[in-house]
Amino acid sequence: MRNVLFATSEAHPLIKTGGLADVSGSLPQALNKLNCDVRVLLPYYQEIKNKLENVKQIAQFSVSGHAGTISLLETRLPDSEVKVWLIDYPKAFDRPGNPYLDEQGLPWPDNAERYALFSKAATLIATGQIIADWKPGIVHCNDWQTGLIPALLAQQPQKPATLFTIHNLAYQGIFSRETYLTLDLPDYLWSPDTMEFHNQISFIKGGLVFANIITTVSPGYAREIQTAEFGFGLEGLLKHRADKLSGILNGIDMDIWDPANDPLIEQNFSVKTLKEKQKNKTSLQKEFSLPVENDTPLIGMVGRLVQQKGIDIVLEALPDLLQESVQLVILGTGEKKYEKAIKQFATQHPKQISALIGYDETLAHRIEAGADMFLMPSRFEPCGLNQLYSLRYGTVPIVQGVGGLLDSIVDTNTQTQKNKTATGYIFTEATPDALLKTLKRAIETYKKPQTWRSIARTGMQQNFSWEESAKKYIQLYEKAATL
């Protein structure tokens, strides 16, 4: 059970479009430190090819339905001992840009073929048909791009256990009946009881139906996806498999996100030297061309500017929020209408709002270190990472009570302040009014520096390391082997 094949479509720092990459870059390292022999299996994208030099070929093979030879390459995750195996098939993966989207932002038309090939290759590796001297006890699959793997392994006589992690159920890998017929898949997969979904093929159903164990990236999200509101049509299946479904909160890299040693921020600080955080705030205000006002609460936002993340709620609330003495810095990119609206507010209120449309890793660290509060009003959030970074940096999160946000933040009230468990502020309705009321609660507390620092320090002392999450995954690996 200590041999783990970790199949994923992205892994930081090799290739990243979102949180899946952060998990796939960090969890295998944490597992490795707990004496698991992990092999991260990735497509050999052009972006990875451009980054790596030390890559060696360890096998060649073919899969049904695809002409030509596939090469299996080996390297390591940068700055780690974790081996990475790369599926090299240039026709499918050697192309520029996003792994899933073309230059127009549309899904690559052959995505079903590409990830079916990846899954078939993974199945051969998992059953020891490619590498004779290494065979996994568990195959850990992630999101729809790997959903076929548990389905294809289901009919194998000598198969490893499988665990399937849902990082975001909104993305399901749904393709037409016509596409399904081109994939050279077993007939048993076209059935409402397997992977057929309203006369289409759903890759994610392969994982949900056939995996021994299903996980999501927070306990709260595991509960939510069994409801019509968050289940995207799969809530019935997830309820049916509820005894095999659980949530494990993602961890964070405690070395990279460490205010005491972060080289990207103006002034390092810790729980004991929290007052030094003020220098980061001053630096951030200057960087965003805002007035340097020590006593004005500075709210940070970093993320995608899309409806899921609640940016529309923020925009509706802004006219009233700006009546308060606050400042707001925003870093992100997303839908053009939201980008335009944010720019307009920043132009009209230059002393209170400043925004950078785009993404910059250094600036993300500086916002976490310099802001007093961090705003995450997501409509749904499988786990969320920024609230965990914020806690680490003494930046009090203000979140909507969904998914991993609800699991990781303790709301500030009379009782939680008294017993010193409060770490942030939670609102429970996706409305501007609810957001405003909660922000005003936070602003009132901010005016009491001693109380505010107590909340910040409590947050900084929380343990969201990957080691804790990895231990829980190992327990599930062992359980999966008995099913």
Give a written overview of the molecule.
- The protein has 483 residues and is an alpha/beta fold.
- The chain has two domains: 3-251 and 466-480, Glycogen Phosphorylase B (Rossmann fold, 3-Layer(aba) Sandwich); 274-460, 3-Layer(aba) Sandwich (Rossmann fold), CATH 3.40.50.2000.
- Helices cover 37% and strands 17% of the residues.
- It has 19 helices and 17 strands.
- It has helices spanning 19-33, 46-51, 90-93, 111-126, 148-153, 177-181, 203-210, 219-224, 235-240, 277-287, 311-321, 336-348, 361-370, 386-392, 403-408, 414-418, 432-446, 449-460, 466-480, and strands spanning 3-7, 37-43, 56-61, 70-76, 83-88, 138-142, 161-166, 174-176, 200-202, 213-216, 245-247, 298-302, 327-332, 353-357, 373-376, 396-400, 425-427.
- The strands form three sheets. The protein has a nine-stranded mixed sheet with strand order 3-4-5-2-1-6-7-10-11, with helices on both faces.
- Helix 12 (336-348) links the parallel strand 13 and strand 14.
- Helix 1 (19-33) packs across helix 19, helix 10 (277-287) crosses helix 13 and helix 11 runs parallel beside helix 12.
- The longest helix has 16 residues, at 111-126.
- The model has no long low-confidence stretch (mean pLDDT 96).
- Into which percent range does the helicity of residues fall? 25-40%
Uncertain segments are none
Shape: elongated
- Tell me the count of domains: 2
